[in-house]
From TrEMBL:
It holds the Pfam family BPD_transp_1. GO terms for biological process: 2-aminoethylphosphonate transport; transmembrane transport. The lineage of its organism: Bacteria, Bacillati, Actinomycetota, Actinomycetes, Mycobacteriales. This is 2-aminoethylphosphonate transporter permease. PANTHER family: IRON UTILIZATION PROTEIN, MOLYBDENUM TRANSPORT SYSTEM PERMEASE PROTEIN MODB. It is found in: Cell membrane.
Length: 298
């Protein structure tokens, strides 16, 4: 009787309604449209403007463009080398040579990152200009009427200002890399009789190569496209590619010529960025970063 009263189990029929389609991809559209509108569209317009008849041949064949290209690369490379030397020295001192006030010095270096570049040039004018404080003090001591320091309005003044402004971009990555070196590794090297210079050369600097390459590549890209320091310095005859773009586009209203130079500037920056990615990938692979739990940013 009990068996007769029990209701047989029945399996529900399979659902014929399809699962709702995910619309999460719609969230990609706003940032994608923003990138296309803000980044890609201006670049396409610049390239189209540079396609005017005879613009490329006229600009690339001019002596002014070749001089500006050479001067831009020379100033950027020299400034980057100076930033690497000065930044490495400052990072080593701040990380491994404790002294009173080191934290304050580190904060002051970080403060430079928050300042616009033309303020550094303005400060240099007040200090090293023809009527600056240092020349005034030297004239008061020596009695000379002509300024003793007259480098500010030359390529050397531009390079000095760029080194002062962009060195923190090297110091910060190096300090982060130095903080990851185990103290036990340094103690073992010192206990084996290695001198401080040997420890620096064999232990510290090899660990800092990726950070040094990253900081140096960033500084090279920034100095290659720097405009404010060169313009506010007012150095005579120091015409770089950004200044030449400004001159031809704003002063003489030669928009096709300015677009050609801007296209060359963009291609040069992209080539340097690609070279940086290749070098960084080889350095991290050689040091075994590819086996790390967290992959490096791409």
């Amino acid at each position: 009787m009990t068996g007769l009263l029990e209701r047989p189990e029945t399996t529900p029929p399979p659902s014929t309604t399809a699962a709702p389609r995910s619309r999460a991809w719609l969230w990609v559209l706003p940032p994608l449209l923003l990138v296309l509108l803000v980044v890609l569209y201006p670049l396409v317009r610049v390239f189209m403007e540079s396609s005017a008849d005879g613009s490329w041949g006229e600009v690339l064949g001019s002596e002014m463009f070749r001089d500006a290209l050479w001067r831009t690369v020379a100033i950027a490379a020299t400034s980057t080398l100076g930033c690497l030397i000065l930044g490495t020295f400052l990072a080593i001192v701040l990380a491994f040579v404790p002294f009173p006030g080191s934290a304050v010095v580190g904060r002051l270096i970080d403060t430079v990152l928050a300042l616009p570049s033309f303020l550094i040039t303005l400060a240099f004018t007040f200090l090293y200009g023809s009527a600056g404080a240092i020349n005034a003090a030297i004239s008061a001591i020596t009695g000379s009427s002509s300024p003793m320091l007259d480098f500010l309005y030359t390529p050397a003044g531009v390079i000095t200002a760029e080194i002062t402004f962009f060195t923190p971009f090297v110091v910060r990555p190096l300090l982060a890399a130095f903080s990851l070196i185990p103290q036990s590794q340094l103690n073992v090297a010192a206990s084996l009789g290695a001198s401080p210079w040997r420890v620096l050369r064999a232990v510290i600097l090899p660990e800092a190569w990726p950070a040094l390459a990253a900081g140096g590549s960033l500084v090279l890209l920034l100095t290659l496209n720097e405009f404010g320091i060169v313009l506010f310095t007012g150095a005579k005859g120091v015409i770089t590619l950004p200044v030449l773009i400004y001159t031809r586009g704003i002063v003489t209203f030669d928009l096709p010529g300015a677009a050609v130079i801007a296209t060359v500037q963009v291609l040069l920056s992209l080539a340097l960025y690609g070279l940086y990615r290749v070098v960084f990938a080889r350095l991290t692979t050689r040091r075994g970063v590819g086996d790390a739990a967290v992959e490096p940013p791409k």
